[in-house]
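Residues pack. One example:


***
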Amino acid sequence: MKTEQIQEQGTVKKTGTTIVGIKYKDGLMLFTDTRSTMGDIVENKTCTKLHYLSPTMYCAGAGTAADTDRVTRMTEKYLNLFRNKYNREGSVFTAKRILSNHLHYYCGYVGAALILGGKHNNDYYLFDIHPHGSCTESLYTSLGSGSLAAMSYLERMFKINMTEEEAIDLGIKAIEAGIMNDLYSGTQVDYLIIKDDGAKYVKAAKICAARENVNQPITLDKKIEILEEEIIHLND
């Protein structure tokens, strides 16, 4: 009976993403690709996967686009309510608890894998939050279908107290590794920097695997030649 119910639900469409979070000397960074897929179909080549929570707190989302968008918007609203009620900003730990509790409540049926980054008391915190609600604080992390390739590069090249330039280069190359080794990640790299003077969002920092010779005109011969001729006589 249960097997029949599963078959009636239809085939689940695979979604994919590569997202990366890195702490460096003066703050933290979040990196994403921009491809949105439904199964084997590319739905959007320039999808935004960085979600605003507060002026010093952002999320990178992987999984089902609707779930990541709605969960982060819900958290943003809770943080706004907290700000209006207590006249101060909610901490990154408040956002982590809201997200992890909500995902755990739905036992993984909300398809949102999130990397949360934010500033609290002059320090920076980076968390990866999985769809079942588990949460881990990290110096660097990666989630999504391309995370295996990205994490292999991060583990080899990451070092503590990197400069901003080193962290940007590491994050872009990690996302590029995910793009080149995962069909469900692609197009370009977006990243966001959170540091003392606020957040800075950089769109299309690098375009990966761009199509070449797309606009070259196709030239055809101006004349038509008969290469072979066969005459068949039909009897009346």
Observations:
- The first strand starts at residue 19 and ends at 24.
- The domain at 9-207 is CATH 3.60.20.10 (Glutamine Phosphoribosylpyrophosphate, subunit 1, domain 1).
- The chain has one domain: 9-207.
- The chain is about 30% helix and 30% strand.
